[in-house]
Amino acid sequence: MPTANLTDDERRRILDELLKQSVGGKLPRGVQARVAREFRCSDASIGRIWHRFRETEANDGLGEWKSRIKQNSGRKKQNRDKIAAKIRAVPIEERKPNRRLAHATGISKYLVQALIREGVLKVHSTRTTPYLTNNNKFRRVEHVLAYIDPTSLMFD
């Protein structure tokens, strides 16, 4: 089961433990597995931290142990003002359904949904059939009853 990425603080503690147990710059047999169990991560993670520390220490004298995962990794957010301007340029009739709006503006359907979720776009729904009043309901039932033939309701 995969574990979360190690923080720089955890990496530092792992490296301190490895340095304490190393003999002449080498790890004795089983140390890597023991440290992995202690910090609840994989042996491979411990090995990568140790290997990169040893390589960078040999190159520049300062061992590097910090994570290389950028703090701002992932897909970058698009400028919401530019997207709103694109949407305003589309005629109102072309804005529904969301797929048509996405095609007309050149943005993804997912982004249209995200804009709705964020509150940048508002959903306006219209009621195509009016609500029935009591009088309308009564007249509708009368109309339907006119089509029912009593002779056809024979169930055996």
Automatic annotation (TrEMBL):
InterPro entries reported for this sequence: DUF7769
Recorded superkingdom: Eukaryota
One Pfam family per UniProt: DUF7769
Ranges where the DUF7769 domain occurs: 6-59
PANTHER family referenced in this protein's UniProt entry, alphabetically: OS04G0681850 PROTEIN (PTHR33889)
Entry protein name: DUF7769 domain-containing protein
